[in-house]
Amino acid sequence: MAFITANWNPLGEAFYRKIELYEMGWSLRDGLKECLVAAAPYGGPIGENSHCCKIFRIYNWKSGPVRQLGWTVCDDLLCIQEDGTVLIYDLFGAFKRHFSMGNEVVQNQVLEAKVFHSPYGTGVAIVTGASRFTLATNIDDLKLRRLPEVPGLQGAPSCWVVLTQDRQTKVLLANGVDLYILDNTSCTPVTPPGLSPQACSIVNMAVSFSYKYLALFTDSGHLWMGSANLKDKLSEVDTKVRTPPKQMVWCRRPKSQQPSVVIMWDRLLLVAGECTDTIQYTLDEESVCVAELDGVRIIGGSRHELLQEVPSACQDIFKIASMAPGALLLEAHKEYEKSSQKADEYLREIKEQSVLGEAVRQCVEAAGYEHEPETQKTLLRAASFGKCFLSNYPPEPFVSMCRDLKVLNSVREYTVGIPLTHTQYKQMTVQVLIDRLVYRKLYPLAIEICRYLKTPEYQGVSRVLKHWACCKVQQKEEPDESIAHAVSVKLGEAAGISYSEIAARAYECGRTELAIKLLEFEPRSGEQVPLLLKMKRSQLALSKAIESGDTDLVYTVVTYLKNEMNRGDFFMTLRNQPVALSLYRQFCKHQEQDTLKDLFNQDDDHQELGNFYVKASYKEKKLEARLSLLQSAVDEYNKAKNEFAAKATEEEKKLLRFQRRLDEEKGEALLGLSLQETLHALLTSNFHKQAEQLYRDFRVPDKRYWWLKLTALAEKDDWEEMEKFAKSKKSPIGYLPFVEVLCACGAAEAAIERRSEGEISTVLSRCSPTTDRALLERLNRARSTAAKK
Questions:
Q1: What region holds the Vps16 N-terminal domain (predicted)?
Q2: Spatial separation of the C-alpha atoms in residues 400 and 393, rounded to whole Å
Q3: Percent of the chain with pLDDT over 90
Q4: The predicted structure's pLDDT at residue 318
């Protein structure tokens, strides 16, 4: 604790410190000399490409010369080759895919390339031998943009960066002392405000981590710092060094008012800010600077360090002779541990100023910025000590910081190697940290963190287990049975895990049988069936769909089978699945009539074929076609030994021919009517002979025929014909229907009107109990009146 400020260096009103994160364990004969090195932000992995063409974790490099390395947001390594091909590898050196930056690049070669991150994802920008820039803002949705030409540019520019402003990606480049901004449509010259007139050329430039600030280094040794839109100047510093630097990156904490840039030469590291002073560090080996959200990582052959501005909370507490509330509380706690009365004096001083709550807050905040666990513990103990004297201090900040530090310390371990700061951790979120651990296959640690932070299972443990299972199925040395058993035991009933996704990964790896075994653990048939169809296991897919009871799923499989199989095999498959066959028949009835006929033929189902021909006949407008279909139906019914259906169909044919003859002779539109409708039409049209013939030919029951003729004669008010008909022979339906029909048609009203007692009595004698009561009363009154006369 006494030497915490030993590595602090002042720059203006701020201090900067360099913290050693790790001793590097790689064995490089010449260190990082003549190497391409790329490190992912947020304490991400490191990729290295040396002159002997070996890339970190990727051995026996056999592809072309590499111009640039970079990392995606998902920790995949990008290797940009001289011919414009971009190769993508995962963290363990497994090749994933590749893409090209265009045909023109193949001819002109890549001179320089940069990998950048934007709101759209990971992007790649290159400049070719023809001095043209090509840009891809998102490699996962590749759309190449060729930017306009730069006037007077020969070869590569002296320096250039990629800017992301207002959701637009642009290129800022320097050609000598001239600056240009390239966008999709134009090349615009720009001038930074207040740039030193001594500058003849801009030799290096850097954009901040947030793309808000820009730094330019000129051949006169001046460093210009300002806004990335080149409208505002922050400062300009004379570094006294005219040699072009190897690298230049921003070092700026969020919410900090101190702009600073780190410039690196072969053996010198310089930090410049707003003031004229600078901080200089001597480098004893080749190193690389990596810009971070709140500092700069310095990676060398033997050491890995972090350079950052000392946070204000740490300055207030640890600065020499500081009287800040946090510093006094820390001293009070030290004296308390020594059992000294000075602890009470410090506490009284803090309470008198009413800043005890601020002191606790400073200690908690400062603990988050410290990397040494012992320093963290000291600060948190001091904060806990101060909380004891506060009655209403909320515990959440303290508890949250303790949890965060436990997680951070676990991932900073040498065996894990993710040197996250608390600021980066909060910006990155827990979910992204879990993803990064999963990409490294650190499953036990990821699960432990999820459980410790009480992350919802489907977002935490289940997600980690699913990734583990997807990785497990790719281990080709293990048999299918053991992998399927291990996955089922490990995953158990974990929430939110889809076995179909794991099975899909197994199928992609060429392990179809393993995929089928894994699908047995999938409870949702809707997830099983599509993958089984993709694996060409259609029979099993159909069985699973039927078991699910989901008719839509069954239809999906049947439609797939229909498109993939020949007609005969398709029908034979359905014959073995009665449920699927029944559903397909229902579908064909509404959508594919011809297919339905073929299906009945395949099954030798003569009864259904007969029904099919009968239904089809009703849709035909031409009589001959209808008769032909009915004859086919008769033949099928005979084969099915359904005599009734065959005879009924024959009679239908006979009726149709009779109707056609009448249409031709009498001009009546009878074709298509039923037997009863035909009789009714003939009777109402006074074709009594033809109706009698039809009655005899089709053996219409007497009662039905008498009723038909009675109602037809009543409709046309043919009372004379009705009287003849009633007297022709004994009525099989009796005479009450005649009276009821007459009453309904106005015969009773006629009798009342004539006031004939005999007629009224006749009508009353024929009335039944169901006759309208009001009508009966009128008839009785009319008879009484007629009798008096």
A1: 5-399
A2: 14
A3: 39
A4: 93
What is the distance between the alpha carbons of residues 654 and 563, in angstroms, rounded to a whole number? 43
**Kind plus residue range of the DSSP H or E element containing 577:** none
CA-based nearest residue to 693, from 664, 659, 717 = 659
Strand partners, 302: none
* Contact in structure between 308 and 16 (CB atoms under 8 Å): yes
Asked if 253 contacts 262 with a C-beta cutoff of 8 angstroms, the reply is no
**Residue-level pLDDT at 601:** 62
Q: Single out the residue of 346, 324, 350 nearest to residue 334, CA to CA.
A: 346
DSSP string spanning 611-633? HHHHHHHHT--SHHHHHHHHHHH
Tokens of 223: 């460093």
pLDDT in tens, 213-222: 999 999 999 9
pTM above 0.90, yes or no: no
The three-point CA angle 674-677-680 to 5° equals: 150
As a whole number of Å, the CA-based R_g of the chain is 48
CB 261 within 8 A of CB 251: yes
* CA neighbor of 262 nearest in space, from 275, 277, 279: 279
* Distance in angstroms (rounded) separating the CA atoms of residues 451 and 69: 36
Indicate the pLDDT class of residue 589, thresholds 50, 70 and 90: low
Provide the CA 714 distance to its chain's centre, in angstroms. 73
What is the DSSP secondary structure assignment for residue 329, as one 8-state letter? H
Write the CB contacts of 686 (distance below 8 Å, at least 6 apart in sequence): none
Q: How far apart are CA 437 and CA 444, in angstroms?
A: 9
The amino acid present at 122, given as its one-letter code, is: T
Number of CB atoms found within 10 A of residue 536's CB: 11
What is the DSSP secondary structure assignment for residue 51, as one 8-state letter? T
- Where b means 16+ CB within 10 Å and e means fewer, 734-761 reads eeebbbbbbbebebbeebbeeebbebbe
128 closest CA partner among 152, 151, 153, 99: 153
Give the tokens for residue 701: 């029951």
Helix (H, G, I), strand (E, B) or coil at 440: coil
Residue-wise DSSP of 150-177: PTT--SS-SEEEEEEETTEEEEEEEETT
What is the C-alpha to C-alpha distance for residues 375 and 311, in angstroms, rounded to an integer?
15
* pLDDT grade for 25, boundaries at 50, 70 and 90: confident
